[in-house]
Amino acid sequence: ARITRLCFEEILKARVSIDMQLQQNGNADIPNGISQYDFRATCNIFKIYCNAKNFYLPSHLDIISHCTSQDILAPLFRYYLPDLFNVKISFDMPMQIIEDED
Fold it and tell me: What domain of life (predicted)?
């Protein structure tokens, strides 16, 4: 539904913003200016939306491109993109490199 998509987009923006702040602060577990409760709540709400398969839209790719968090990227690459393109993930990473015998 439209409201669900709008809510997810706002949660995604908040989650990516948190990730970007963590990147800037290096070793911090929680970004400056946010309580531990709000940090956990935002992360958990994001996970709830992902678990309910309220996934990304192509318009979200620009937002996602700024993050490094496994919590944000894993649902995109493990679930959303394979589902979008109807592709089964059938290989493990890293992929084996086959060298010529010449």
Answer: Eukaryota
